[in-house]
Specification:
It is built from 12 helices and no strands.
């Protein structure tokens, strides 16, 4: 079986699981939490393997444990938003109605910090302590918190629209940049983390992302008989923001892999490498979209209405 066929088969399976995860609501999004938890835990395993250095012992289990708790905190946000009629009046629901999820997540990060420092001071050698603790915490900030924001976006009234928009633009940007660079790439982008990237590839990625976003809005209006969440100008701006942040996410992972001297984060997915290789763009695009939506709700600008 050729590498291209493997990539296509894997991509179809991954896309099917991904869509099922957030489009099916019959099981209170439990399947989405399970998929998200697997991605975070498997991604952390790859991340810690990339960052591990001789003579240092990372806090892998602690990082995974607190990351799972953070994912659960954001999942509960989604649950209470989408099924508020089932939980209204409960003390836990009242707490979440005050938007405490980020505060709880930050508290968990600090608890992890105290936890790993206690272990390091009590049971491990001091040499390499700063790297071990820093790299372990970085995994939580790099993976768990950004990917858990997926639940926050989906809990929005227009959450399904935004998730589909995000997914389409991220995929099209990656594909457009790849094929544009392969077919027309002549001018190196001059990026040390990924020397093979070309300016033409990036331009094709941006252009196709904008076209795909505009087409999606048109189809969304026809199919759902509902106005898209953004205007024409906003769609272009948002598509470019997501494309740029997606490219940055890809380069960030390339930087980590190049520093560690590895080509792929793992070989878990045939033709695609590891989990990190698949979600590297989303690690940056999800937070950018979440911040954008949050700012949009606070700052009332006519062009974005």
């Amino acid at each position: 079986m050729s590498e291209l066929v493997k990539r296509i088969i894997s991509a179809v399976i991954l896309l099917s699981v991904y869509l099922f995860g957030f489009l099916y609501t019959g099981a209170y999004y439990i399947q989405l939490f399970v998929i998200g938890a697997f991605i975070i835990l498997a991604g952390l395993s790859e991340f810690y393997r990339i960052l591990e250095r001789p003579g240092t012992q990372l806090f892998k289990n602690e990082g995974k444990f607190y990351s799972l708790l953070i994912a659960l905190v954001f999942y509960l946000d989604l649950l209470f938003a989408r099924f508020s009629h089932l939980f209204a009046g409960s003390s836990l629901y009242n707490l979440y109605s005050e938007n405490l999820s980020f505060k709880i997540a930050l508290l968990l990060v600090f608890i992890m910090l105290f936890h790993v420092f206690f272990i390091q001071i009590s049971f491990r050698k001091i040499e390499g302590a700063s790297y071990a603790i820093g790299a372990s915490l970085m995994g939580v900030f790099y993976l768990a918190i950004p990917l858990s924001m997926f639940f926050q976006i989906l809990s929005n009234a227009a959450g399904v629209y935004y998730i589909l928009f995000l997914s389409l633009v991220t995929i099209i940007n990656d594909s457009g940049a790849y094929f544009g660079g392969k077919l027309f790439g002549k001018t190196p982008a001059g990026i040390k983390a990924s020397p093979n990237k070309t300016r033409e590839g990036y331009l094709f990625g941006f252009a196709f992302s904008v076209l795909a976003a505009l087409a999606f809005n048109y189809v969304w209006f026809l199919d759902a008989n509902d106005q898209a969440a953004g205007s024409f100008v906003e769609t272009i701006i948002l598509a470019l923001l997501i494309s740029f942040s997606g490219n940055l996410g890809d380069l960030a992972e390339s930087c980590l892999k190049r520093d560690a001297g590895v080509k792929d984060s793992a070989n878990l997915i045939p033709g695609h490498g590891g989990i990190l290789d698949r979600v590297d763009s989303l690690i940056f695009t999800i937070p950018v979209l979440y911040i954008y939506i949050s700012l949009k709700e606070v700052v009332k600008i006519p062009v974005f209405q």
